[in-house]
Design goal:
2 domains; seven-stranded mixed sheet; Aspartate Aminotransferase, domain 1; Aspartate Aminotransferase, domain 2; 13 helices; binds pyridoxal-5'-phosphate; 379 residues; alpha/beta; three-stranded antiparallel sheet; 14% strand
């Protein structure tokens, strides 16, 4: 059987989450904006329960806003374009935007869109370990910077940026901090308010919840302009009928994902380390992001002396793994390029994303499949 090791691309929906969502598809199908009857009020209450679950899971208090979206891509777009538009409306002189070369395209593309519309963009490089240099980050901040966007955990190499230090630097300079937390929420502690993250994006299908739902959390006082206009839902910040089953699923998934987070991280970290030790022993195998703090369920390797296309053709018989971001659709990984890898080396890289369903059997199969493929390709 194929071993599924692509949990950064998507996680299977937790059966308990599916059960929590179930009544809201048809038995309780009212629109949560229908406030004149009991079914509508019950749907609205379910949405508010989910909002509280999401806020609690991410270390946010009652005053912090939670705007439900269709996923982290939409949450990122709302955060970045919404902050810029609100700043324009109030005549804010700060215009420069700051980010890292290893961000997800769901951050880089909206920022490049804003750059084309007159907002200068600084994209900072990262070191060979995938981490931003804090001195370089501090030097890039200035009185002209409006917003910085830095991801919590990288979707390819699992590297965790030093968010607490980054947030402190931003705060000292009056710069808003947006964090793409799609790969981090439910997997590492993300205490939004303690850390001082102004805006935080999360996604349902990265934490054992449903696809098609996410949220943008924003600290009180952060001005945001809506990017979808219509019925005024979500406090006027995101029009459109709220997808009750999906937001119920997101709330439940995040709560459950946080509840078994430490135990899961310990178990998957041990499996990941076993996988790495066996693959390293093959020789000519490097771990991308080695030396940096990383998600315990991530391993990204580059195999030297093999053709990447041939390697992945052999691996896909036994493994569901990836050679980069699932969203980059075959183009070379900009994340691995930012670490200094050549196109050929990036192509000969494999991302393993372990998850709740991963056990010794899957890791054993991965070790066997990679070892056999490398032996065959190296002749
Ligand atoms: C870091 C990161 N940000 C954003 C996204 C996009 O999330 P969604 O699929 O919810 O739009 C992903 C998905 O791969 C991701 O890994």
């Amino acid at each position: 059987m194929l071993a599924y090791l692509d949990h950064h691309a998507s996680t299977p929906c937790d059966p308990a989450v599916q059960a929590a969502m179930e009544p809201w598809w048809s038995v309780q199908a009212a629109n949560p904006s229908s406030r004149l009857h009991r079914p509508g009020l019950e749907a609205a209450a379910a949405v508010e329960r989910a909002r509280t679950q999401v806020a609690r899971a991410l270390g946010a208090g009652e005053a912090t806003g939670v705007v439900f979206t269709s996923g982290a891509t939409e949450a990122n777009n709302l955060a970045l374009k919404g902050v810029v538009e609100a700043a324009l409306e109030r005549g804010e002189p700060r215009r420069r935007l700051l980010t890292l070369a290893t961000e997800h395209r769901a951050v880089l593309d909206p920022l490049r869109y804003l750059e084309r519309h007159g907002f200068p963009l600084t994209v900072l490089p990262v070191g060979r370990d995938g981490l931003v240099n804090l001195e370089a980050f501090a030097a890039a901040l200035g009185p002209d910077v409006l917003l910085a966007s830095v991801m919590a955990a990288n979707n390819e190499i699992g590297v965790l940026q030093p968010l607490a230090a980054i947030a402190e630097l931003c705060r000292a300079q009056g710069v808003l901090l947006h964090v793409d937390g799609a790969q981090a929420a439910g997997h590492i502690p993300l205490a939004m308010e303690t850390l001082g993250i102004d805006l935080l994006s999360v996604s349902g299908h990265k934490c054992y919840g449903p696809k098609g739902v996410g949220a943008l959390l924003l600290l009180p006082g952060v001005a945001l302009a809506a990017q979808l206009h219509g019925g005024g839902q979500e406090g006027g910040l995101r029009a459109g009928t709220v997808a009750v089953p999906l937001v119920v699923g997101l709330g439940e998934a995040l709560q459950r994902c946080c509840a078994d987070r430490s135990e899961r991280a310990r178990r998957l970290g041990a499996l990941r380390d076993r996988l790495w030790q066996s693959l390293e022993a093959l020789g000519g195998v490097d771990c991308n992001g080695a030396g940096a703090p990383r998600l315990s369920h991530n391993l990204n390797i580059t195999v030297s002396g093999v053709d990447g296309t041939a390697l992945h053709r052999l691996l896909r018989r036994d493994l569901a793994v990836s050679s980069g971001s699932a969203c980059s659709q075959g183009s070379p990984s900009h994340v691995l390029a930012a670490l200094g890898l050549s196109r050929a080396a990036a192509a000969a890289s494999v991302r393993f994303g372990l998850g709740r369903g991963t056990g010794e059997a899957e890791i054993g199969r991965a070790i066997e499949a990679v070892s056999a493929a490398v032996r065959q390709l190296r002749g």
